[in-house]
Amino acid sequence: MSREKNYSLSYDVVIVGGGLSGICAAIASARHGAKTALIQNRSVLGGNSSSEIRMHVAGANCHFGKKDFMEAGILLELQLENKKRNIYHSFPIWDSVLWEKVRFQDNLTLYLNTVLIDAESLNSEIKRIICYQMTTEKRFEFTAKIYVDATGNGTLGFMAGAEFRMGSEARSEFLEPDAPLEATNYTMGNSVMFVASDKGEPVKFERPFWAYHFTEDDLKLRPHGKFTWYHGENGITEEYCNDSGYWWIELGGDTGDIIDHAEEVTEELNKVVYGIWDHLKNEGDHGAENYALEWVGSVAGIRESRRLVGDYMLTEQDILEEKVFDDAVAYGGWPMDEHAPHGVFDKDVNPTRFINFPGVYTIPYRSYYSKNISNLMMAGRDISVTKMALGSTRVMGTCAIGGQAVGTAAAIAIKHNCNPREAGTYIKEIQQTLIKDDCWIPGFKNEDDEDKARFAKITASSFNGLCIPENVINGETRRIEGRENCWESNKSADSEPYIRLVFEHIVSVSEVRIIFDPDLSREIMISMTASVQEREVKFMPPQLVRDFSVLFKREGEIVFEKEIRENNQRLCIVKTDNAINVDEIIVRVKSTYGSETARIYEIRVY
Q1: Are residues 469 and 592 in the same domain?
Q2: Handedness of CA 252, 257, 258, 262 (dihedral sign)
Q3: Alpha-carbon dihedral of residues 148, 150, 154, 159, nearest 10 degrees?
Q4: Is the same domain home to 298 and 313?
Q5: What angle do CA 49, 53, 55 make, to 5 degrees?
Q6: How far apart are CA 162 and CA 372, in angstroms?
Q7: Which of 333, 301, 355 is nearest to 64 (CA)?
Q8: What are phi and psi of 508, to 5 degrees?
Q9: Is a pLDDT exceeding 80 seen at residue 1?
Q10: Residue 446: inside a domain
């Protein structure tokens, strides 16, 4: 009797890795028509943001340091859904939001607890990958037209023979001013987080015999203890609070191969965490007398390992110059940070050095596909960048929007029956599709000739200052350099403000896409850090439109009306039952989540 459980499965796009970059890539690919599989080796999705690791999603806005640069697209869709149902920042609930969005997405199949064990390549092309699902003891053979490595470690690319790098390039290779003079094998280290809570009474803690011991001198350059503010280099501000761990609990950057030593590093990190907690509880006054340790991560968060090489490697100069590439598909704004290679044991060295810049830069499409494996793309921290550039591109917000770009491009490549490199000839289609899906690409805006709203006459019941009705078709969907780029009603003039689109001729319409304002200057991410939670709004952003209706009119008569209640998204897509002929569309705002004015950034008509 055979005990083998072997399955052969075929997809258009197979994505390995279920962190935020893999999630966004998978959803985007599926939504744009590609039959897609997402393979995740854990029982939950979310990577470093999951309940296993519990890191909040940093991005281009640098925790309020750079207003209006917050990422939108699928990532914001996920965060707004989480904000609606998870106001107390439960990471297991966040897990469920991510699972729901993936599991019930049409055209997308999810494989949890499924480990990549082999990849077979021939003539610089992946022919198949082999995976094993631990819970079911099933062995899967996946074939696809395009594969996406969203593993973080570049595992799929490594197994397939893709060119990769690990460690620091020498300064002379790319003339990066802050790169080391000689190449090194140092990487940024891994971290384990912890959570503690105030029990309202003294709580004792006894250090386990295996935990390290830390003195105040050992931690003199690592802010800890009572809630304090630390002002880093170049104006970067970070918070430290003894209720939610410290990012500087970091090790492994000096191991030579951080992947090879991953288990050893995680064990050492646990010894460090319990040693740090012992220091907070038992060495001096750190305000921790009433605190009890509630949770310590068993999975380390990884910052850096392999980087797969593409047709272009983003460099430090590209970031400092805030370069806008012709084939830009994503952007970043987090400072380049260089972490101490020996981590927490580098007691005489600051835990990181920030290399800041005032704005944002773009990331080219050429950095998202492999140089030597023709059907391999990458999303997340393993994209084609130098180590210096990785210090900025590695954060989850930047990884997520890059993932959406990769998934979108993969689906467009499938549509045109070409490989990822050849899909670069359709770069305008890729860019305009991303912009349509509420992904901002600095230096680019809506130029979609299929969007009938661009050719309509726009009026409104009222408007406020420079927030004129015509802004909803100016192609920009966020505040840029002080320009609002939205329509805003005048609160003193309207009880139910509306905006009207009038067409010169009868047009056939089946879809209206509206971008509202959830305030991109303010974070809405899940976090286990009390200070981060406190500076966010507790409930939905007050500026966001909650209830609205869309009226479709022809020759003065309403031919179709759609009323939306309890909207919780920035991008809202209103579809008609069938294509209808109209010469006028009215969007009427009935309520917001608190604001006295209505704000709309864009209206598109298809």
Answers
A1: yes
A2: negative
A3: -50
A4: no
A5: 45
A6: 6
A7: 333
A8: -90, 125
A9: no
A10: no
DSSP letter (8 states) at residue 392: H
Q: 205, 316 in Cβ contact below 8 A? A: no
Question: In total, how many domains does the chain have?
Answer: 3
- Strand pairing of 6-16 and 138-149? parallel
Three-class DSSP labels, 512-562: EEEEECCCCCCCCCCCCCHHHHHCCCCCCCCCCEEEEEEEEEECCEEEEEE
Distance CA 557, CA 555 (A): 6
Residue listed under structure tokens 């940093």: 58
92 within some domain: yes
Indicate whether 407 and 380 sit together in one domain: yes
Per-residue pLDDT at 216 exceeds 80: yes
pLDDT at residue 227 greater than cutoff 50: no
pLDDT average, residue stretch 275-285:
94
Alpha-carbon distances of 316 from 163, 167, 176, 387, rounded to whole Å: 21, 15, 6, 9
487/567 same-domain check:
yes
**Do 78 and 34 lie in a common domain?**
yes
The rounded distance, in Å, linking the Cα atoms of 336 and 369 is 22
E strand or H helix at 279: helix 262-282
Distance set, CA 277 to CA 102, 154, 208, 251, 375 (Å) = 37, 34, 11, 17, 47
What DSSP line would sit under 460-497, residue for residue?
Answer: ES--BTTB-GGGGGSS--S-BTTB--SEE--TTT-SS-
- Cβ-in-10-Å burial (0-12, 13-18, 19+) of 557 comes to exposed
Dihedrals φ, ψ of 374, to 5°? Answer: -70, -25
CB 306 within 8 A of CB 259: yes
Write out the E strands in 206-257: 228-231, 237-240, 250-251
**Rounded Cα–Cα distance for residues 242 and 219 (Å):** 14
**Mean of per-residue pLDDT scores for the chain:** 94
The model's pLDDT over 122-143, given as tens digits with 9 standing for 90+, comes to 999 999 999 999 999 999 999 9
Element (H, E) at 155: helix 155-160
Query: Torsion angle of alpha carbons 156, 157, 159, 165, nearest 10°?
Result: -130
* Rounded distance between C-alpha atoms, residue 49 and residue 19, angstroms: 8
Q: What is the CATH number of the domain that holds 87?
A: 3.50.50.60
At which residue do the structure tokens 């770009």 appear?
A: 405
Coil/strand/helix, residue 457: strand
Return the structure tokens found at 364: 């080219």
Report how far apart, in Å, the C-alpha atoms of 603 and of each of 420, 469, 570, 594 are.
Answer: 31, 10, 12, 22
User: Phi, psi at residue 390, to the nearest 5°?
Assistant: -55, -35
pLDDT of 293-351, one tens digit each? Answer: 999 999 999 999 999 999 999 999 999 999 999 999 999 999 999 999 999 999 999 99
pTM exceeding the 0.85 threshold for the entire prediction: yes
CA distances from 116 to 126, 154, 499 (A): 14, 12, 51
Q: Grade residue 547 by pLDDT with cuts at 50, 70 and 90.
A: very high
What pLDDT does residue 63 have?
87
Say which residue the tokens 């210096």 belong to.
388
Asked if 414 and 524 sit in the same domain, the reply is no
CA-based max dimension of the chain = 82
**Residue 201 corresponds to which tokens in the numbers above?**
């009474």
The two structure tokens encoding residue 347:
């007691």
- Residue 267 belongs to what domain range? 190-302
Residue 242: helix, strand or coil by DSSP? Answer: coil
